[in-house]
Amino acid sequence: MSSTVEKISGNQVRIHFDIPAETYEAAIQKVYLKMRGRIRVPGFRPGKAPRKVIENMYGAEVFYEDAFNDVAQEQYDAAIEEHDLFPVDQPTVDNVDQMKAGEDLKFSITVYVKPEVTLGQYEGLKVTRFVHTVTDEEIDRRIQQDVDKATTAEDVEGRPVQEGDTVKLNYSGSVDGVKFEGGTAENQTLEIGSHAFIPGFEEQLVGMSIGDEKTIQVTFPEKYHAEDLAGKKADFEVKILGIQQAVKPELDDDFAADVSDYSTFAEYKEAIVKELQENADKNTKTRLENDLIQQATDAADCDIPEAMVTRQLEMMKQRLKYNMMYQGLKFEDYLKYTGQTDADVDEQNRPQALNEIKSELVMEAIVAKEQPEVTDDDVEKQTEERAKRYGRPVESYRENMNEREMESIREEVKMRKVLDKMIDTAVIEDKDDKDQVNLDQMADDMMQVVDNLEDQPEDEQK
Length: 462
Known about the structure:
- The chain has helices spanning 21-35, 51-58, 64-82, 136-150, 253-259, 265-299, 306-326, 331-338, 342-370, 376-389, 394-399, 403-425, 433-455, 458-461; strands spanning 2-7, 12-19, 92-98, 105-112, 126-131, 152-155, 166-175, 178-191, 213-219, 233-247, 427-432.
- By secondary structure, it is α+β, with helices and mostly antiparallel strands.
- The strands form three sheets. Strands 6, 7, 8, 9 and 10 form a five-stranded antiparallel beta sheet that branches. Strands 1-2-4-3 form a four-stranded antiparallel beta sheet.
- α5 packs across α6 (265-299).
- The protein is extended.
- The protein starts with a strand and ends with a helix.
C-alpha cells in the first residue's frame, strides 16, 4: 500500500492511493460477511448464500462501494498521519481510476489542510508598554465590594422613604384603566436609586411612609421590550408595607478581621493594593504580548481556507449565544432588536475571525521554527498554574491528566517560552497607561470629526 501527496495550492493537496488487489479483495469479503445476513436469496437461509451467488444475482459490483468506503477511510487516516498533514475540511474523493475485484484499487482524495505560513519579523519588534499604577479610586472600589458584602439591613420606623432605602410594597399598574400583564405584584422589594423599575417610579416613592398609598404616573420608554406598552403612560397604585435602611460597617480593624484573613485594616488595605497591582501588571503583560503577536501576525503571510473561516465564525457565534444566554437573552431576540440576520453577524465578525485564525497559525509557525526545549520542571510549573486556574488541587489534577492534556501543557510551555523570547528581544518603550487613554480619546475625537464632515454637503466641507 502506498500514497503520494500532490500539492494543488497553498492549502489544498491531492493524495493518490495505490491499494494492492488482495487488500481490496479482503475488504470486499469483509463487506460480504457483514451484509449477507440482510440479503435474501431464494433457496438459501438468511446469511447462508455464497458470495458468488449474491454477486450473480445483484451484480459483481454489489459490494464494491461499501468496500471502497472502508478502504478509503482507513488509507486516508493512515496517509494523514504518514505525511504529517492537518486537514481543516472534509475530504473529497475526486478520482477513482479503477474499482474491481482482483485488480489494484487506485483513487485520489482532495482535502484542504492547515496552510503554510511565511513568517515575517517577530524578533526585535518595537512596542509600547502602557504601565498602570493602581489609583486610590480603584482601591476604594475594591474595599467597597467588601463593604457591600458586610452591609446589613435594619427596619426603619418614624421617617419616610429616602434615597438608598429598600422598600417593601404592593403595586398595580394600568394603561388607560386596563391592567396589563406583569404590572401587579405584592410584597415586592425595591431599592430606591437602583433604577430597576420604569424611569420616574422610584423617585415618586421618596417621602412616602409605611402604610401610605399613592397613585404614581410614569411613561414607558419608547424602546421597551413589551411593544404594546412602549411609549405609553401608565398609572400605578402603590402601598408602602415596610422600609429598611442599609447599615454599613466602620472601616476599622474589626471590619478587616470580618472580611479577610488580616487582623488590622492597614494590613488588609496593603494586601488589596498588592492584589490590584499584581492584576494590573498581568494585564499590562497580556496587552504587551497581544501587541507583539499582532505585529508578528501582520508581518506574516498565509492563505486561509474558507473552511477554517466558517468554523471560526460558528465558534464566535456560539460564544455570543452563550454570553447572551448567561444574561438571560436569546440570540434570536438580539437579531430582532438589532435588525440583523445570521449572515450579517458573520460578515461583521469576519475580520476578527480571519485575524484570530492567522494569529494562531503564525504563533504555531514560530513555535515550530524556534523548537523551544520543554523540561520536566517546565511541565510541573505549568501543571500547577493550570490547576490553580481551574481551582483544582494540584495533586488531584495531575493524577487525572490524560496524554492529550499533558501534550496541551507542553504546547502551553512552548508558547510561553516563545512569547518570553519575543518580549526579551523587543524594543520596549514604557508609558503611563493614562497616555493610552488620551490617545484613544484623540482617535475617537478625530473619527467624530471625520463622521461630521461626511454628513455635511460637499460645498460645506470645503
